[in-house]
Write a structure and sequence with these properties.
The complex is a heterodimer of chains A (about 170) and B (about 200). By secondary structure, chain A is mainly α. Chain A is about 85% helix and about 0% strand. With about 200 residues, chain B is an all-alpha fold. In chain B, about 70% of the residues lie in helices and about 0% in strands. Chain B is built from eight helices and no strands. In chain B, about 45% of the residues are buried. Classes of the chains: A mainly alpha (about 170), B mainly alpha (about 200). The interface between A and B is large, with 83 and 94 residues.
């Protein structure tokens, strides 16, 4: 609750801050960007609606036990690879992603595997990519970003193996 | 770096300032159609498993979620529009463009780490940066930094669920990744698209 409130305050504070800067550049600049932003919003809102409302159904048909099962304990690099796939396939928001990570840690999953899972989830959870990232950004950029991000959960797991547990 | 848009209706008020490269907005693209099909199939599967009540349960829950998110999406869009309006194009392309080097990647990383809000802020702002002259590398660094080391998600979700020790340790491990991702992105991009005008699709 308070975290969400804080984020809202920071967010609208930033909007007002940059809005004031735009206003001081002159009214036409301010009005043009206000209109541009509103048009973006009108264009994006239906797609966000589809995403947010649809993601509930996608999450409902992917059983979470399947994903936890992939994060086998002490499975080495094969475990890291399946953690990356599991991270990308995890439906739903941060609550589900981090909860699955915690469950995997508590049920004996290897720490590098869980790190790979969390990083892969952060980098390319398919739901966030197709429901949030693609509506806002050029699709070519999004696919390119995902493609170059593929090595990094493995890099994170390797660092975790080298420097050890928290 | 963004697609040139000859059909972008430039506002008349922009006449005295330098023409800003517009962002292409297609109301319905292939991605939207694929998502719609995916959602329809999932909803049908839920309906077959749980019946009409199951479908309505999810619908009402997600509708209330959506109405809560909507104001933040508006804030994100306004933030993106204002930022793309007030950031000077040549300055952005100098500090975040293809020739900005390591410093551009570091700036992108720092920017992503301090950006407030969720996906509704990060993606419109990243899109605005692309439109005013940041290159793929710096923008990738920003997006990856926001998702991996941005404090918003860590404070709101990761620390409460996974614990402070794991979160801080995980962020420490992730620190070099945005810069590396941006560097790799730049390295691949230059080879994939040798010149901005070349149309050699390699797939």
């Amino acid at each position: 609750m308070s975290a969400a409130l804080l984020i809202d305050i920071l967010l609208w504070g930033s909007v007002i801050g940059v809005g004031l800067i735009a206003f001081r550049r002159g009214r036409p600049v301010f009005v043009a960007s206000l209109r541009e932003g509103s048009m973006d919003f009108i264009n994006i809102a239906p797609r966000i609606a589809l995403g947010v409302i649809g993601s509930g159904y996608i999450a409902a048909i992917i059983p979470q036990e399947v994903i936890t099962g992939w994060l086998g304990p002490d499975s080495g690099w094969l475990g890291v690879a399946s953690a990356v796939v599991a991270g990308a396939a995890t439906p739903g928001g941060p609550v589900i992603g981090f909860s699955i990570g915690t469950v995997a840690l508590k049920s004996g999953g290897g720490v590098p595997q869980v790190v790979a899972y969390v990083v892969a989830w952060a980098l390319f959870a398919f739901q966030r990519v197709i429901l949030w990232e693609i509506p806002f950004m050029p699709a070519r950029f999004v696919w390119f970003r995902c493609a170059v991000s593929v090595p990094f959960p493995f890099v994170a797991a390797a660092i975790a193996m080298v420097i050890g547990k928290p | 770096m963004s697609d040139p848009s000859p059909n972008h209706p430039a506002p008349a008020e922009d006449a005295e300032s330098e023409p800003r490269p517009g962002r292409v907005r297609k109301p319905i693209g292939w991605s939207t159609i694929i998502i719609a099909v995916l959602v329809a199939v999932s909803a049908a599967l839920v309906w077959r498993r749980d019946g009409t009540d199951g479908v309505l349960d999810i619908l009402t829950h997600d509708l209330s979620l959506f109405s809560g998110i909507l104001p933040r999406v508006l804030a994100g869009c306004l933030l993106g529009a204002f930022i793309s309006e007030i950031l000077p194009h040549e300055k952005v392309s100098r500090s975040l463009g293809p020739k900005s080097g390591l410093m551009g990647l570091l700036i992108g990383t720092a920017f992503g780490a301090i950006l407030p809000g969720g996906p509704f802020t990060a993606y419109p702002v990243a899109s605005a940066l692309l439109a005013v002259g940041a290159d793929f590398g710096a923008t990738i660094a920003m997006v990856v930094s926001w998702t991996l080391i941005g404090y918003g998600r860590a404070v709101a979700w990761e620390i409460p669920i996974m614990g402070t020790d794991f979160t801080l340790w995980r962020i420490l491990i992730s620190l070099p990744l945005p810069v590396l991702a941006g560097a790799l992105g730049r390295f691949v991009y230059v080879r994939l698209y040798p010149k901005p005008l070349a149309k050699d699709d390699e797939n």
